[in-house]
Amino acid sequence: METSVAAADARGPIAQHKKALVAACVGNFIEYYDFVIYGYFASVIARLFFPADNEAASLLLTFAVFAISYASRPLGGLIFGHLGDRYGRKTPLAVAVLLIAASTTIIGLLPTYESIGLAAPVILTAARLVQGISVGGEYGGATSFIAEYAPRNRRGFYTGWQTFTIGLALLVGGGVASLITGALSPADLRAWGWRLPFFAGLPLGFVGLYLRLKLEETPHFASVQSHQEVARAPLLTGLRDEWKSILIGMGLISAPSACIYIYYIYSPTYLSAVLGFALADAQRANLYSLIFYCALLPFFAHLSDVVGRRPLMLVSALAIIIVTYPAFRMLDPAHFGRSVAALCMMSLAFAPHSATALCAMAEIMPTKMRYTGLSVSLNIPVTLLGGTAPFIATYLVSHTGDLRAPAWFVIGAGLCTLLAALCYRETLRTGLR
């Protein structure tokens, strides 16, 4: 298949490749932007939508809604994946980005428990579920879109920008949240300030919709269509013929699922609510580590096109296992600089795998079921490990008394990824199937 579309890659204008890259990344930006601001303002949302005498109980309910939204992600992956592998990548991705943006905006407009009672947490949960369905169809489709448009010798670099966009969304969301927290009084923050970042979802969604509708279908999928090789039942085809690739993909995404949600989304809440950092300091420390993380991603993505995917993933998985617990022990509200260094250590360990894994996963899936295969491989680990990470971390700390308990959660996911990387066969020279 790679050979059959090589000419299309060569003839395809660079401008079209770049447009495809930007269009695919917009949805990922909105997705993770929403998740990070939800994480940053979790303590505020807990008081407004889940009032309880026990603050820990309110926070657990808030993160439970965060986790519940992930229950619908596999369903969204199956629906959008089927449509994407049967009829093309473009339209499902356009619908997904619009649903994500609408759900984010609804959360910003939602009245609180004090205003409408139980309807408030119910609507909040419904908005997160709809968002979960659309996000479930977004991630695998965007990865397929970028990989199938990217030049063969720069596929690692191109797909790495998808991960960079996720990091950028975390950085922008964290920066906006920190700015609002620092600029407003606690009373104004609870009254209306927390809503402001959610309002950005709608205009970003319209931009993403416009960009995606203007693009043509990917050359790889167009080739499958022209050769009449489109799978009638992509999920069944994948489970029957590509189950090993799907399992390897699930393993490769295990560490990112835990690391992104513990290192960057849960981190501000953990630093402030568990370790006693001032909220502004917790957000600022997380922001510095995100800047460092984003700066590393393009380098490692480019390096994967030189040395291969497997070496970077193996080294990174080992580093995550070795570094995470000592780094957690370095976190101390009395030593801000040392705490930032600890967060940056974890980012350095994680970045090589984060920049490489999506490309590796795209290359082991055949074009006729790539959208579905990636959606299954991505959504199941993210649902089980990512969506539940803040809830599990909060539960472990409150019920064991071990302030470093979240580190063991990350280490367990790192072991799964190490095993998958050992089973993965290098795809640098073989390219897309």
From TrEMBL:
Membrane topology: Multi-pass membrane protein
GO MF assignments: symporter activity
Domain Major facilitator superfamily (MFS) profile: 20-431
Transmembrane parts of this sequence: 21-50, 56-80, 92-110, 157-180, 192-211, 246-266, 286-304, 311-328, 340-362, 374-393, 405-424
Keyword flag Flavoprotein: no
Subcellular compartments: Cell membrane
Keywords from the named record: Cell membrane, Membrane, Symport, Transmembrane, Transmembrane helix, Transport
PROSITE patterns: MFS (PS50850), SUGAR_TRANSPORT_2 (PS00217)
Recorded GO CC terms: plasma membrane
Pfam families: Sugar_tr
Keyword Transmembrane attributed: yes
UniProt cross-references to PANTHER family, sorted A to Z: ALPHA-KETOGLUTARATE PERMEASE (PTHR43528:SF1)
Protein name: MFS transporter, MHS family, proline/betaine transporter
